[in-house]
Amino acid sequence: MILSVAVLVSHLAGAPPLSSYQPEPAELQRARRLMLSRPGECVALTHFFLQRKEAKPASLFNSRQELDKLEQAKRYRTRGQTFTAWQLQALCQANDGQMLTADASINKAIALARQQRQPDALVTALLLKTKLALATDHTAQAQSLLDEAKSVSLPAGDGLIGDLQLLQATVLMHRHRYDEARQLYEQVRLQALQQDDMLRQSWANFLLGDYYLQLQQDELALSHFLETLDVLGDRRQFYVKALAAKKAAAIYAALGQNDKALQFANQSTTEFEQLGNSPLLISSLINLGRVTRAGDDANLALVYFFNALDLVKIQGDAELMAQLYLELGQSYSNLGSYKEARHYLDLARSGFEHAGDLPRQADTLVQLGKMHLAQQEYGVALLRLERARAIAEQLDDVLRLMESHRLLARLFEQSGNMAAALTHQKALHAYFKRATTVNRLLTQSLVQDNEQQLQQERELSELGRKSEKLQQDRERFALLAAGLSLLSPLLLYGLLRNHIRSRRLWQKNQELQQSLLIEPLTGLPNWRELMQRLPQEMARQQQRSEQWYLNEEQARPFDDKIYYLLLQVPFMSNLRERVGLAAAIDIQQQLGEYLRGRIHPRSRLYDLRDGQFIYAIPQKEVAELEPILTALERMFAEFPCHFELDRRIFTGIIGHPFLPKAPNALDDLRLGDVLYLALAGARELASNTGESAWVELVAVDCQQAAFFTGDIRSCCIQGIMKGLVKVNSSHKKQQIDWQALQRGLPSEDSRGAV
To answer: PANTHER family of this UniProt entry (predicted)?
Structure first.
């Protein structure tokens, strides 16, 4: 996580407060006010002030001196004013993007503070230099500067200690030590709350929100951003309030709550407007316009975009102006004002072509193509979209390629060229498969982050880094041994000790890898173990199926399958809500030990979480399936537990190879889809009967592998309807409405539009 330079360098005052008898000069007061809004003027003011001569302590004046001496004081600068000027200049240069000159300015402040032995000024300057290091992603340098700042002695109640802790937490975030960073943020927040320090409390809340945003915990992040706004209330802290409102608006927009997103986007724009920083205000207006347009109010969005355009014209940023032309053109296109839309989109395309911005040039061509397509100008739309597709192919941008192929497919479909439309639909589907995270047998709920496993993975990564370092040390020792024979006993001792440490680390590494394959609560193999073993197991079965087929033994049925049974145990799904966390953990541990002692010795049982298990057993071990299913039902029914549990189980069953004469027709993903389809049928039987239910899907011997090309679930349902797939079940299979299950599946068009 790298915060913007403005965030990193703006929430410290810049210098310790000066003495009460010596007010801050007007130049520095104005520079401090312009630090965020007009950093260039701030740099000029501090530079002008530093041209003054430095006054010696003996020549300081107080308010009782005559007027001519007070006028003379305006031509000098004191030691404290010098510290303030250098630090302010560094802040303003950083906010203006002049990172090298900002580093030089803060170095002068550090050197001056060391020379004059001023601990407060030294710590403040070191903290500012730490922020500059973080802004340029120099984490090691930032930690070194913080360590130096910690070594400086400060009074117990000094506010700089809280700023130092905030920066330390930010450094920990950069180093991916999230738990320590969160604890430090919480500590600063509580201290600020006790000391009634609203500003530091608000910054701690804001940074905590950013912390949870990095961990993709949007609800927690949103609560901290809202708390930041609540703490500040009507206080004139425009910058942090604007940032918090902007983050809250983005989260609400992602959650689909457009009304609240619009409310906070408006607040962010208002705060940035009061701050007076034109670039930040422009960015906020663009964000507000997009949120407003997403809420189907393109007319109001145009107002925001034109306001931003006026500011950009004053600023003279051609690239940003082209972006606004694109937003205006898209808004006019949404309103159906195609003449104005074409005008602004042509301006945007010219701007992007001049700047060499290929991605946004492709976006502009897509918008032009959509506009011409809406007007049924198919020839011009085809030219625009083909050009957009060519640029996207040049950039290898999958998302833009998907959008261009989607629009091209719609264009050819509307113009009656179905063959070309089908070609683009296939291309869209191919890019969609490339861009989408493939469902590897498990739903997203089965791979949600688990705190224990995340910690194990972090430890595994840390052990890997330590192991690499030890390997480098061993190689260094081996090279030195040839030239330093007199030190051979010491080197041998070092090598032996290094070998022992490496061995221990290797053993611990192996233990952690094994623990990642076990479900922590039940102790059963988990989905990682299944996904490691399943492709290898399927490859062996496919090879045996091919040998059976090539030996022309079709007269003897293929009897070397592996049966996969997908079990759903209802009482495991809501166990924590019904009995509580502690009791649920205890029941799951007891269930894991119980199941390990009850399953067939040649079978395997995998815990997929959320009450789903996969039971795999070879066909040669099963004379008939019904006794196995009865044993599984009895196994869960006889599980000893003093809580009242729903003892039913729903089971989907298939055998692999599913098509013995064409074993390569199903890979592990398509096999999983068929298995979940069988489970869906079992669940429908159970909903009708109120009892445990099972459904087995078996492909008949005369099946054609080509029939199962495409979406495997739809193909299986069609195969069931046409008699190519046989259905065995615990109850009357006529109670399963396969057509209803097929209507619940996404169509090709709906999947392409995702």
So the answer is: RAPSYN-RELATED, SLR0380 PROTEIN
